[in-house]
Amino acid sequence: MKYNAILKFFGIGSAFNPNFNNTSAYFDFDADLFLIDCGEGVFSNLYKLKLIERYKTIIVLITHTHSDHIATLGHLLLYSFFKLNKKVRVFFPEKYLIFSFLSSMGVAEEVYDLINLSSTFIYKNKLTIISIEQMHVKEIPCFGYLIDVGDHSFFYTGDSKTINHFILDK
Fold first, then answer.
1. 60 pairs with which residues across the strands?
2. What is the pTM of this model?
3. What is the pLDDT along the chain (170 residues), one digit of tens a residue?
């Protein structure tokens, strides 16, 4: 059976180009929502499009912790838990960094599932996600994700200065 994951973008403008919204993308896979980054306008977009309600499972992959990539993550987690009674799964290779960020916003650990995606993650035996360290700024870690779905694969990263040779060699 073939599976497709069509990548759609909420924005392509990065931090300093609000006319194009913050860089973030999502795809639907096997009736679940995969969100890549959750920057400053993302929760509002998810809410307006009713994507939070539509999916039983929401998985968020975080590339790095600048606000244009995670500023509304807390809103998504709290809304999903308290209004819809579901936990969002958050994936990031540096688990403590995301936990600290969310704790500082008053988001309790019980309202979401934090998964340390430090290598390969296989979802429902159909989709594979490999986290790959990238270089953005020296102050914070940055990651890209190689996502394999059936016969197709794509690489997504946020604001990287360089692309890892593993990806370039592919």
1. 35, 90
2. 0.89
3. 455 678 898 877 777 777 777 788 999 888 899 999 998 889 999 999 999 999 999 999 998 888 888 899 999 999 999 999 999 999 988 888 888 889 999 999 999 998 876 678 887 888 899 888 887 778 888 888 999 887 788 898 888 777 877 788 87
